[in-house]
Design goal:
By secondary structure, the chain is of the alpha+beta class. Helix content is 30%, strand content 28%. A hairpin with a 2-residue loop joins strand 20 (364-367) and strand 21. Helix 2 crosses helix 4 (78-84) and helix 6 crosses helix 9. The radius of gyration is 21 Å and the shape is globular. It binds adenosine monophosphate (AMP) and glycine. Residues 209, 223-224, 282, 286-287, 289 line the site of glycine.
């Protein structure tokens, strides 16, 4: 199979790395890719938001199968264009990608299928939104109703904070002025990844991300500073409840509307008292969650994803090892605010690269035989082991082997699960 992966982050490096281990992978293209990906695949500098450019590349290079990493091409309908042209595509249609692109849409789906989530209201009018917040009180959650790269959400502790967030949205900070206001949910957050082929849903792993930039979960939100898998809070019982009450009803509702979902559903959950409620859906793998999932799944990731696009998930099982993976993101100083590009990263060649230790690249490029940082999140140092402690030690040994004075990371990735001894909690 000739495969094209769209994207350039640590997520896409991890997918490429897992696919490469599978003998069914012949030629592997990644567009646009990065310096790490270029070592294992052919990178193509095409505009992945352009349906015409992606289609032309796939046709010219005899690609059989396209895997779409990030949300932007999905929301732009790149999967529809490829499918219409007869390609196998992993990733939902533009219509089904609304589960991520519109928070209001997801809330309507939850209402229609009775999936447990926070109570909510949507407003296109600032004054009405303000009145609603004044009536509800705080804490309360204010969300811009569209793709805002994770930056459109304010968990407001006070009413003035919520009102300020509403004003920012209606001042046009996030494009279209529309707001979703939600009940604040307390509990522990976890992510659940489920392959869906339109009929069958197959769980492929759980993870916990670290969204804040600072240790102890402080400071501004980021795309994710580190993750581990499995998430102890996602017990078998919680997974079962979430599949029964949230995932399968959502998939049935999408199919009933004539817009079945095919791809990976990233289910963001709040867990409290042994029960999950939906925080949000994403319609793609998480970054850096994908890095820990791929380390654990290895070569079978390609078989699972291929079965998903061929509508063959019924009867497929995941071969689980009793293992743990943990990834630590190294970011450029200043991230998630302004940061410098172009600093040189040394020491990567001396690091191990195998099924237990991998430095996935995110924002990197090769310049004159050197690797330079070109993004905010730059590397994802990933370890796997029999225990979370082992995975943690391997990941931080990689971090310590990277010579990059202009970068930083959180030193406390995994604290929640390590504090529990790393083993799953009982129900
Ligand atoms: P979202 O982009 O919808 O995932 O929201 C970003 C983050 O805000 C989530 O990961 C949660 O930490 C938090 N959040 C979102 N909605 C709620 C809610 N209703 N209650 C509590 N926290 C929330
Ligand atoms: N790490 C969170 C995300 O990919 O959205």
């Amino acid at each position: 199979m000739n495969i094209l992966i769209l994207g350039s982050g640590g997520r896409e490096h991890a997918l490429a790395w897992a696919f490469r281990q599978n003998p069914k992978c012949d030629q592997l293209f990644v567009a646009p890719g990065n310096a790490g990906i270029a070592e294992i695949a052919e990178c193509a500098a095409i505009d992945i938001l352009s349906r015409a450019a992606v289609l032309e590349f796939a046709q010219e290079n005899a690609v059989d199968f396209v895997v779409i990493g990030p949300e932007a091409p999905l929301a732009a309908g790149v999967s529809d264009a490829l499918r219409e042209a007869g390609f196998l595509v992993f990733g939902p249609s533009q219509a089904a990608a609304q589960l991520e692109a519109s928070k209001g849409f997801t809330k309507e789906i939850c209402d229609a299928c009775d999936a447990p989530t926070a109570a909510w209201a949507r407003f296109d009018d600032g004054a009405a939104a303000r009145d609603y917040v004044l009536a509800q009180g705080a804490p309360i959650v204010v969300k811009a109703d569209g793709l805002a790269a994770g930056k459109g959400v304010t968990v407001a502790e006070t009413v003035p904070e919520a009102l300020a967030a509403i004003d920012a949205i209606f001042d046009g900070a996030f494009g279209e002025p529309s707001v979703v206001i939600e009940e604040f949910m307390s509990g522990e957050e976890a992510s659940f990844f489920v392959l869906c082929d339109g009929d069958t849903c197959l769980p492929i792993g759980t993870a916990q991300d670290h969204k804040r930039v600072g240790e102890g979960d402080t400071g501004p939100n980021t795309g994710g500073m580190g993750a581990y898998s499995p998430a102890p809070v996602m017990t078998d019982a919680v997974q079962q409840q979430v599949m029964d009450q949230i995932v399968r009803p959502t998939m049935a509702e999408m199919a009933a509307r004539g817009t079945p979902f095919q791809g990976v559903l990233f289910v963001g959950l709040m867990i409290e008292n042994g029960r999950g409620r939906l925080v949000e859906y994403n319609v793609r793998f998480g970054d850096p969650e994908c890095q820990v999932l791929m380390m654990r799944l290895g070569a079978q990731a390609l078989d699972l994803i291929h079965a998903c696009v061929e509508n063959r998930l019924d009867g497929i099982t995941v071969n689980w090892a009793d293992d743990h993976a943990l990834t630590v993101v190294m970011a450029a100083d200043g991230y998630p605010g302004d940061y410098q590009k172009g600093s040189r990263i040394n020491g990567l060649d001396a690091l191990p690269a195998d099924g237990f230790n991998m430095v996935f690249h995110a924002g990197t490029a090769a310049r004159d035989d050197a690797v330079i940082a070109t993004g905010g999140r730059v590397l994802a140092c990933t370890g796997r082991g029999e225990t979370l402690e082992q995975a943690h030690a391997r990941a931080y040994a990689l971090v310590d082997g990277v010579d990059w004075p202009q970068g930083f990371c959180r030193r406390d990735i995994g604290w929640r699960a390590l504090g529990r001894g790393g083993s799953p909690v009982s129900d």
